[in-house]
Amino acid sequence: MQTASKNPRVWPELKADCSRCTGLCCVAYPFIDAGKFGYNKPANERCRHLGPDCRCSIHGERAEMGFKGCITFDCNGAGQRVANEIFQSVDWRHDAVAATEILDAFRALTHVHAALSQLKLLENLPFTDEQADRFFSLFAWLEPVSGWTEKSLESFPAIEAERAVQDFAASMKGTEAGRALAERLSGSSR
Ligand code: SF4
Ligand code: SF4
Fold this sequence. Notes:
Blueprint: E1 2-3, H1 25-28, H2 68-72, H3 78-86, H4 96-120, E2 126-127, H5 129-142, H6 150-154, H7 158-171, H8 176-188
Antiparallel strand pairs: 1-2
Bound molecules: iron/sulfur cluster (2 copies).
């Protein structure tokens, strides 16, 4: 039995910081659910409420205006990472070709960061050796040493990766790590 507390890797920032982003989520996703978004729009089209400064012009009234989906959305830090790390000096607002690439990368990295956020919940559980190996291999897959690039994100099976973390968590059921996880989750929901 071992506790995967000596994580040899540094976690990326997993909390959204909209002040360092260019409103990527307000452009990347389609609005197709009238109950969550106030009108319909396709993917890769800026929301009509996104100001030229990339700030939401109805931020305080989103619920009243039918945009509850925006309130619950969380990019887990993928937005600022794409804007500042992966596409350092390229702004989707000024380059239509780059915009498609930036938004593709953002959607992929959002899955990666969702998976990393779920994986972080499993950190320091009393793993068996096999579980610890799986934890570290998932971490290495989701956070490569060389970092993420537009190219590496393009071919990465981001949705499967998210599922792999969920499957790993589910596979712990009945083990000491699974019991510790259940306790951890019940503690965080109190
Ligand atoms: S993509 Fe993330 S960081 Fe950027 S505006 Fe949306 S929630 Fe904020
Ligand atoms: S309503 Fe505001 S937060 Fe929601 S997508 Fe539009 S600009 Fe972004």
